[in-house]
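Forgive a beginner's question, but would it be possible to get any protein sequence you like and the tokens describing how it folds?
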Amino acid sequence: MMTRTTLGLALFLTSSATFAQAACSVDVIQTKAPEVTTAIQTIAARNPDRVPALQAELEQQMTAIQNGGDMAPVCTFFDQVIAEAQG
């Protein structure tokens, strides 16, 4: 399951280079992606039941951006996942 999430995230990030730069940009998302992957792995180790919800939210965020949505919610989600893993 983690491989699918990581692969999906990598594919999304490589296909997103055409999006406009903003406070939450493709560059910011790409920079945070490895930390988010590690955070999801940390959360999964502590609470495997939490992973499906994280994957669903990640897929929803990626789909929204692919459909032209705002990137800010992705950065917010990434920050929340990182904070959850640290907490």
